[in-house]
Design brief:
alpha/beta, 5 strands
Length: 165
């Protein structure tokens, strides 16, 4: 498991951080400054010499948060790779997929896009046009079975009179 270095500012976030970084092995660390990187810098992919820690890059999703991903530098070839940020993309996709399921549920209960937007202002603000776009995109991906033998019965809702069908 990832080594998580805590201070008084992020001590309360330990359960969340453990869950987020639980899939990584013991070679990684989350520093007290909030940087996710390897404990021992990897070898350069170009010249195969050891690299050194070289700061971080910040990735932000407005209204959601940001993450600092560790960067490395090779002293031989000046190559500057950074750590894999797939977990950040995964976290965002999990959140937005669950929001899409939430939109589908509200739409199945006939809540308008404007109403969904008003509810989302309490959770994660989304405009009604964004909700409509995401909902339409998800509905295009749904598989709908088409039955070939569909019989439609038309009837009059009034009581039939004597001698009529």
């Amino acid at each position: 498991m990832v080594t998580i270095n805590l201070n008084l500012n992020n001590f309360s976030e330990l359960p969340i951080l453990s869950e987020v970084f639980g899939s990584f092995d013991n070679n990684y660390e989350y520093t007290a400054e909030g940087i996710f990187r390897r404990k021992a810098p990897p070898f350069c992919p170009r010249c195969n010499s050891p690299m050194v820690h070289n700061g971080y890059n910040i990735y932000t999703k407005k209204g959601l948060g940001d993450i600092k991903i560790g960067r490395y530098k090779c002293s031989n070839c000046n190559c500057t790779p950074e750590e894999n940020r797939s977990f950040w993309e995964g976290l965002k996709s999990v959140l937005f997929d669950s929001l899409d399921d939430f939109f589908k549920l509200l739409r199945s209960h006939n809540v308008s896009h404007e109403g969904i937007s008003a509810v989302m202002d309490f959770i994660y603000p989304r405009s009604k046009s964004t909700i409509l776009r995401e909902f339409s995109k998800n509905m295009e991906q749904e598989k709908v079975s088409h039955d070939e033998n569909v019989l439609v019965v038309c009837y009059d809702e009034q009581h039939p009179k004597k001698g009529r069908c």
